[in-house]
Design brief:
Length: 348
């Protein structure tokens, strides 16, 4: 991922905040949309954001309320801890509103981050904290990187942040995973790792099953069944009622279609005849499917649940193979830094 030019960002700020126009060619569109939203809310970029520091009791209640999200996300927080420390940053988990639940990483930066309110209990939504990776990821419902001067408030320009929303099986944002570091570090290239971590968290949300429903897991490659990169659709009475991002992407649909998509519209079979094995889509594509925990019906075994580290190594292997061993090209493809690949190569 290309690091934005600080001078270009500053020129965009001068144009936008002086009301001279919209710097559409100088700043990313997601950042510009956020600036517009913040301006419409009457936020003053020169002021200090209002911070309502929570009490220890309030933080404890916040943790108790979101214990399930904290527990299911803990493996990814631990896995990204090393990455965060190497860029002198911290890993942050928030709830759907943008309230920080946990922050772990470099101790030195954690102290500095606390000075700009990057600490448990503080709200980082756009309406209170302006353009920032957490709040903007919630507003945009997509992965966002905010570098230095791209933050709305001047006081936040010391930060660079990369965040991805955590979306539940019904399409609702339930939290955000973020890595924040000093602006001098330019950590935009870690967004690939944050995306993979969130994919793993979202995959774990389907472990318990759904009452009265059947779960279809499918992919074009049978080796991807059972891991976070598989597509998942939850079917009730022949209608798709829940899904993960990968599953919706594979069938070319969106969250808006839930409760309205019938299995027969997507696959060349009825809900009553869904079974593990080969599955043909209405457009002619073929998938390998595992239905309600049955065997796949093929000679390929279902791969057991993988850790974030396993997924990273697998993705790096595939990217290196696709680019003929070119580390730089593989890093660009994955959205991570070359140094991350070099570190992982030692474990391969």
């Amino acid at each position: 991922m290309t690091t934005p030019d600080p001078q270009k960002i500053q020129k965009a700020r001068e144009v936008f905040f002086a009301h001279k126009g919209l710097p559409v060619d100088q700043i990313g569109h997601s950042i510009l949309r956020s600036w517009i939203r913040c301006a419409d809310m009457g936020l003053d970029e020169r002021s200090l954001p209002r911070v309502d520091a929570p009490t220890a009791s309030e933080i404890r209640l916040l943790h108790e309320k979101h214990e399930a999200l904290r527990r299911i996300s803990r493996p990814e927080l631990d896995a990204l801890y090393t990455e965060a420390r190497e860029i002198s940053g911290i890993v942050i988990l928030t709830n759907a509103k943008g309230e920080i639940l946990d922050a772990v990483g470099d101790a030195g930066f954690a102290d500095k981050a606390a000075q700009v309110a990057l600490r448990p209990g503080i709200l980082w939504s756009e309406d209170g904290t302006g353009t920032n990776a957490i709040g903007t990821a919630i507003a945009e419902r997509r992965a966002v990187v905010v570098n230095g001067g791209e933050h709305y408030f001047q006081s936040h320009q010391v930060l660079t942040c990369a965040a991805t929303p955590i979306i539940d099986p019904r399409g609702a944002v339930i939290g955000v995973l973020d890595i924040s570091a000093p602006a001098t570090q330019q950590n935009g290239q870690v967004i690939g790792l944050v995306r993979m971590a969130v994919e793993q968290i979202e995959h774990r949300l389907f472990r318990g099953g759904f009452d009265g429903c059947q779960t279809l897991r499918f992919q074009t490659d049978p080796n991807l069944l059972g891991v976070a990169r598989e597509g998942i659709l939850v079917v009730k009475d022949g209608v798709i009622v829940a899904a993960n991002r990968r599953g919706l992407s594979l069938i070319g649909r969106t969250w808006d279609g839930l409760d309205h998509m019938h299995v027969e519209e997507i696959f060349d079979t009825s809900a009553a005849h869904l079974a593990s094995g080969r599955l043909k889509a209405q457009d002619g594509r073929e998938f390998f499917a595992q239905f309600d925990g049955e065997a796949t019906g093929t000679s390929q075994p279902v791969v057991p649940q993988q850790s974030l580290e396993d997924i990273e190594l697998s993705s790096i292997r595939q990217a290196l193979a696709a680019h003929g061993g070119n580390v730089s090209a593989a890093a660009r493809h994955l959205g991570i830094h070359r140094s991350t690949i070099y570190r992982r190569i030692q474990d391969m």
